[in-house]
């Protein structure tokens, strides 16, 4: 597989992570770089690891979850998106908002945005194509796209305030719906 093909595949897999990162960046009112690094590292790591896992799993695990993997991604994205919308409509308070770049939300988003990469790894195993180099490229591209998405989302939040958090939640839900439609 050529480097150009691997790069295009990586960009295609990173689009969901980029979109989610825009929403999370918009919702994250802290102007620190730590959330950008956490989200970028987590998404990049999962996008790196999932093709490896899919390749190693071959036809066993991927076939077992192929019938409902899109539902898993949808539920995870809809849950986090709904939470963001709820917080967007909530009145401002001195309470600290939940940081989507920590703990369970980070893990759930990382899984939801990288499920497609699992199927890519499975495809590579069927083609008997080596997976390590493509996985590294996929992870690095996803890392970069996530960082750019977070910074872009933070810029939108400066311009539009809390409305962007609601929009970010709607984007997450829309990505989940798009995943469902693609698998019908």
Question: Can you offer a commentary on this structure?
Answer:
- With 184 residues, this protein is mainly alpha-helical.
- It has one domain (3-90, 97-182).
- The chain has eight helices and no strands.
- It has helices spanning 3-27, 34-57, 60-65, 69-89, 103-112, 115-126, 132-160, 163-182.
- The longest helix is centred in the C-terminal third of the chain and has 29 residues, at 132-160.
Protein topology:
Elements: H1 3-27, H2 34-57, H3 60-65, H4 69-89, H5 103-112, H6 115-126, H7 132-160, H8 163-182
Helix pairs in contact: 1-2, 1-7, 1-8, 2-5, 2-6, 2-7, 4-5, 4-8
**Count of beta strands:** 0
Low-confidence stretches: none
Broad structural category: mainly alpha
Question: Helical content, roughly?
Answer: over 70%
**How does the major sheet shape up?**
none
> What's the domain count?
1
Shape type: globular
Whole-number radius of gyration?
Answer: 16 Å
Overall residue-averaged pLDDT value: 82
End-to-end Cα distance: 29 Å
Order of secondary-structure elements: HHHHHHHH
Q: Helix tally?
A: 8
Strand content: under 5%
Features:
184 residues, mainly alpha, 80% helix, 0% strand, globular
């Amino acid at each position: 597989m050529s480097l150009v093909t691997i790069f295009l595949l990586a960009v295609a897999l990173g689009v969901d992570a980029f979109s989610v990162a825009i929403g999370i960046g918009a919702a994250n009112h802290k102007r620190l770089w730590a959330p950008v690094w956490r989200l970028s590292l987590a998404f990049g790591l999962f996008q790196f690891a999932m093709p490896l896992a899919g390749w190693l799993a071959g036809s066993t695990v991927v076939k077992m979850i192929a019938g409902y993997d899109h539902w898993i991604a949808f539920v995870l994205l809809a849950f986090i998106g709904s939470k963001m919308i709820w917080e967007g409509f909530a009145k401002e308070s001195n309470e600290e908002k939940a940081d989507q770049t920590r703990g369970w939300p980070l893990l759930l988003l990382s899984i939801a945005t990288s499920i497609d990469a699992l199927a890519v790894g499975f495809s590579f195993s069927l083609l008997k194509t080596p997976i390590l180099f493509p996985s590294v490229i996929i992870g690095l591209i996803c890392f970069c796209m996530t960082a750019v998405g977070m910074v872009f989302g933070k810029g939108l939040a400066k311009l539009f305030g809390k409305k962007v958090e609601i929009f970010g939640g709607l984007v997450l839900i829309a990505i989940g719906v798009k995943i469902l439609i693609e698998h019908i």
